[in-house]
């Protein structure tokens, strides 16, 4: 039987995300929670506006190693997160740069 | 001075939790001493997958959903839990991050037991350790049945079994009530399929006369037939 242990990569990536958000200090966020599994970053908490919410996700997407972001930050008028997410955002960005 | 109301409320919940209902009063009192009550609104995240597991949760009121994102980026529901259930314990025992995200489906009250305190009490009280082992053993059995279900049964068979499991008698009829959050999407995720396939399976069982889909419930017209339909 295999035991699921988090990869050290996910733990390191979570630390990087926390540090990046602490450095950038995005506006209008409270009680921010961050989890990382399989390179996918999960965000939760409260944002004052949809723009604040989106800004947090955008900041996280810039971080190398982040495959995707599940944005569960609550904000007035914010959509529910989809059941599927766009992955490997950095590969997509590189491909867009080539075309 | 201990908070009598808090302790009473916690003790009352423990009598509803399988295997915790056998715990000596002293153990329950020790658990209550380190627990605190937290409230969440519908849609609010209780914890995220990949977050460090810092607490075990005992559900006092309401329903919650545990989901997990696959490596390919697809969300899968793992569990739907109601009052009297315990969650977050596996990650606390493994001292690993939470394996899934838990979200309140409606107004929810949970008792939060800090992981370190809970582990110390498990080490100190054999009765608590045994209760935990029994609960985990039951969960293993649940997953064995789930594997069997997914590998041997069609969506229609799984749907038939799930409906029978969740049915209750209302005004002389066997009815599966649909909670306001139990959309077709949620039901589909619970059965390990997608909305379109679930809709077709429900339509098939309705056409065959086993059930009738109503706005807020599903009426089981032929439970015996449905049971036979759910067998492999």
Salient structural properties:
heterodimer, A: about 100 residues, alpha+beta, Histidine-containing Protein, Chain: A, 3 helices, 3 strands, B: alpha+beta, Arc Repressor Mutant, subunit A
Tell me about this structure.
The complex is a heterodimer of chains A (99) and B (232). Chain A has 99 residues and is of the alpha+beta class. Chain A has one domain: Histidine-containing Protein, Chain: A. Chain A is built from 3 helices and 3 strands; from the N terminus they run αββαβα. Chain A has a 3-stranded mixed beta sheet. In chain A, α2 (50-61) links the parallel β2 (40-47) and β3. Chain A starts with 7 loop residues before the first helix and ends with a helix. Chain B is of the alpha+beta class and 232 residues long. Chain B folds into 2 domains: 4-151, Jelly Rolls (Sandwich); 154-230, Arc Repressor Mutant, subunit A (Orthogonal Bundle). Chain B is 45% helix and 24% strand. Chain B contains 9 helices and 12 strands. In chain B, the strands form 3 sheets. Chain B has a 4-stranded antiparallel beta sheet. A 4-stranded antiparallel beta sheet of chain B has the order 2-7-4-5. In chain B, strands 9-10-12-11 form a 4-stranded antiparallel beta sheet. In chain B, α4 (115-124) crosses α5 (126-152), α6 crosses α9 (223-230) and α7 (184-190) crosses α8. Chain B is globular, with a radius of gyration of 19 Å. In chain B, 31% of the residues are buried. Classes of the chains: A alpha+beta (99), B alpha+beta (232). Chain A binds chain B through residues 3-6, 10-11, 14, 33-38, 40-44, 67-68, 70, 72, 74, 80-87, and chain B through 43-45, 47-51, 68-69, 71-75, 94, 96-99, 101, 103, 185, 189.
Helix and strand arrangement:
The complex is a heterodimer of chains A (99) and B (232).
Chain A: H1 8-24, E1 29-37, E2 40-47, H2 50-61, E3 68-74, H3 89-98
Parallel strand pairs in A: 2-3
Antiparallel strand pairs in A: 1-2
Chain B: H1 4-14, H2 25-34, E1 36-40, E2 45-47, E3 55-61, E4 64-69, E5 75-81, E6 86-87, H3 89-94, E7 101-104, E8 108-114, H4 115-124, H5 126-152, H6 155-166, E9 168-170, E10 173-177, H7 184-190, H8 195-207, E11 211-213, E12 217-220, H9 223-230
Antiparallel strand pairs in B: 1-8, 2-7, 3-6, 3-8, 4-5, 4-7, 9-10, 10-12, 11-12
